[in-house]
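dumping this here before i forget
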Amino acid sequence: MFMHQPLPMHDNAMGAALAMQAAQRQGKAWQMHDKMFENNQALAREDLERYAKEIGLDVARFKRDMDSDEVKKEVLDDQKIANEVGAGGTPTLFVNGRKIVGAQPFDQFKPIIDEELKKADELIKSGTSLADVYEKRSKSK
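structure:
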């Protein structure tokens, strides 16, 4: 799951979050994400609009969505949840409730993922339904 957490220390963070959310409304959030990531020093409004055009968005709709209260509320709702779970920096990732902060190489994730898969398998073998595994593992933290 991806959630927005635009940090106030980054001048263009809120605009980037709004752009990704506006692009999501046209099914191209990850294309916008990738474009912004490739050009992370060029995230002014005019840059975002150019990226929208480059990835094939309806730019007029993109602009309306970026400026809409509804899209802003979606980003702010994500930010509220991120703050509630202690995700005060980016990236912050959770693997079944286990918090990993900062950009980490895959080698840092692999042992945690392997351990969580093993524990999930044990729960399933003991009768826990697949649908309930995440909740049980997340609550055990």
